[in-house]
Design a protein that fits this description.
By secondary structure, the chain is α/β, with parallel strands linked by helices. The protein is built from eleven helices and 31 strands. It folds into four domains: 70 residues, Alpha-Beta Plaits, CATH 3.30.70.980; 228 residues, Rossmann fold (3-Layer(aba) Sandwich); 85 residues, Immunoglobulin-like (Sandwich), CATH 2.60.40.10; 85 residues, Immunoglobulins (Immunoglobulin-like, Sandwich).
């Protein structure tokens, strides 16, 4: 499958102007996993009693503003509300309030910053008062490569890969990738050129887009997997095709299951038809806005859009070494991706889902109230996202405890095996994974987990089974054992039976619904998969499979749901129903 981008570069460099913003407030504590409280003691309050009450509450005194009898204290973020209630109930204070932050607006010294309207549109300067990113949070740019000698990009590049040349030469073959990379993470505050959204994030160039302006789906899928396997959690794909693909969906899911998020441009055809990978489940589809904060005339739209960001006249880096303005959703997407990198910089414990929800919930609702088809959940606000990321920081450093109860280590198994046990944590377990021979096999239910494993997928003999548990702060715990897989005996020619139990055939659906399929076989079920419009959505190695389908992603109209079952001998059965989405 060939996939091409739609873009129209405008080669005019904007004139620079000086922009001066006043700084206000002390924001240094924003990067710490604590909160601050202001407490004004009563006129006749006993200072010693005040200090005792603060100590008992676990509050640390940072300073005392003596003329107004006000203490500035820090407390653990998760305990903020409880400590404020407790201190208010002592009767020692006339004021108990949070030490909030006034927006300043960090202005970098890049001479063309004042011509980058999109950075003020998303409130980036205020976000930079909180964080300018971290070198430990790279951004993978799945594109046409990056100019390795550009003065605003050379210092930002990390090793990547060309899926066109099958080597490490990631030089830009088209010019598009250099432009999108500059939007996300151009070297900033370096006295030259333009500013990027995430100042300190490295860029991993992954080359899939050819000099002829097309890319194969297989190369894009490989690039997404490559980034996830190299522990990159922010992946930008400013490319799109109008044909759905199981391969792209599987790659996006693979990254998601490893904690990475794919951000993708909605594309520039002024249509509501879904484009991929943006319209894939678990991908963040980004539409474009213009300086008037309305949908750009070229931008795609529809029920599959997640967020919007500026896309008109974006001043950024050029392949030849200079700068010019570009437009397209190709530039909206890296703005959102780089803002996600800012969020991870202050709270690396965010899960993939937690990160996406943070972006959605802290966007500016500029369209119809709530979700709408032009802007999704809203136009990006980097400051609100960064501030929310700080507020969500957990001071938890305790790893989950996990055990494998069944089967017992050393046991001989065959067919479908249920790996069972329990996982506990002081705050809560967010995720349990099953790893076979150091390769991720599946994601299981949390706490009291049960993971189905098709032992027929590996050779006979000894295999290492590992179960990992994660909490919201990113702490991990694991347990492992060895099991022996028995060699298959005899042959089986009987096909399994399979049925879709929800939804009913012909149903009219809206919103998010659960698709449920069940299967049975004389020997056992090796795999049960669910497809929507011939695109693989979910697979299970048990006799039941469920997939939560957001009908908005697929668009209105009739859709085909298919369930397919395999037994250990490779016999298969398929059933299909048609439903409509509104």
């Amino acid at each position: 499958m060939l996939l091409s981008i739609l873009r129209s570069p405008v080669r005019s460099v904007l004139a620079c102007a000086t922009l001066c913003l006043a700084f206000a407030g002390d924001v240094s504590a924003q990067s710490a996993p604590t909160a601050r409280i202001l407490l004004q003691k009563t006129k006749r309050g006993d200072s010693q009693k005040v200090l005792t009450a603060l100590s008992n509450a676990g509050a640390k005194v940072l300073r005392n503003i003596a003329p107004i009898d006000t203490y500035v204290v820090s407390v653990p973020q998760p305990a903020l509300k409880g400590i404020m209630r407790a201190l208010a109930n002592t009767g020692l204070f006339t004021v108990v309030e949070t030490d909030d932050v006034a927006k300043g607006g960090s202005v970098p010294n890049d001479p063309s910053f004042s011509s980058q309207w999109h950075l003020n549109a998303i409130n980036a300067p205020a976000a930079w008062d909180i964080t300018t990113g971290k070198a430990t949070v790279p951004i993978a740019m799945v594109d046409s490569g990056v100019n390795p000698s550009h003065p605003d990009l050379a210092s930002k590049l990390m090793p990547g890969w060309s899926f066109l040349l099958s080597n490490s030469n990631t030089a830009d073959v088209l010019g598009h990738g250099t432009a999108t990379a500059g939007v996300a993470a151009a070297a900033t505050n370096n006295g030259a050129g333009v500013a990027g959204v995430s100042w300190l994030s490295p860029i991993m160039p992954l080359v899939v887009l050819s000099a002829a302006d097309y890319a194969y789906y297989s190369d894009i899928a490989n690039a997404i997997i490559y980034a996830a396997d190299h522990n990159v959690r922010i992946i930008n794909v400013s490319i799109g095709g109008n044909t759905a693909s199981s391969t792209l969906q599987s790659a996006v899911n693979y990254a998601w299951n490893k904690g990475a998020v794919v951000f993708a441009s909605a594309m520039n055809a002024s249509t509501s038809s879904p484009y991929y990978p943006a319209a894939c489940d678990n991908a963040v589809a980004v539409s474009a806005t213009d300086p008037g904060d309305v949908l750009s005339s070229f931008s795609n739209f529809g029920s599959w859009i997640d967020l919007a960001a500026p896309g008109n006249n974006i001043l950024t880096t050029n392949n030849g070494g200079g700068y010019s303005t570009w437009y397209g959703t190709s530039f909206s997407s890296p703005i959102v991706a780089a803002t996600a990198a800012l969020a991870l910089s202050v709270n690396p414990g965010l899960t993939a889902n937690g990160l996406v929800q943070l972006l959605r919930q802290n966007s500016d609702d500029i369209g119809a109230p709530g979700f709408d088809q032009s802007f999704g959940w809203g136009r990006l606000n980097a400051y609100r996202v960064a501030l929310a990321a700080v507020s969500s920081v957990s001071v938890d450093s305790i790893s989950p405890t996990i055990s494998i109860v069944s089967p017992i280590g050393g046991a001989t198994v065959s067919g479908t095996v249920q790996i069972q046990g329990s996982a506990t944590d002081n705050i809560g377990v967010t995720r349990v994974e099953l790893w076979i021979d150091n390769q991720l096999d599946s994601v299981c239910s949390s706490v009291t987990y049960s993971c189905s494993w098709n032992s027929g997928s590996v050779s006979a003999g000894s295999h290492l089974i590992k179960v990992k548990a994660y909490d919201a702060a990113g702490n991990t715990g694991s347990a492992s054992e060895s099991l022996t897989v028995a060699a298959p005996a005899g042959s089986d020619t009987q096909k399994p039976s399979v049925q879709i139990v929800n939804p009913a055939a012909g149903s009219a659906l809206t919103g998010t619904i659960n698709i449920t399929a069940i299967a049975s076989d004389n020997v056992g079920i090796a795999q049960l998969s669910i497809y929507v419009d011939d695109v693989l959505k979910s697979s299970s190695t048990s006799s039941s499979a469920t997939y939560s389908w957001n009908t908005k992603k697929g668009g209105a109209g009739w859709h085909t749901i298919t369930a397919k079952a395999w037994d250990p001998a490779g016999n298969t059965s398929t059933t299909t129903i048609n439903v409509s989405a509104r």
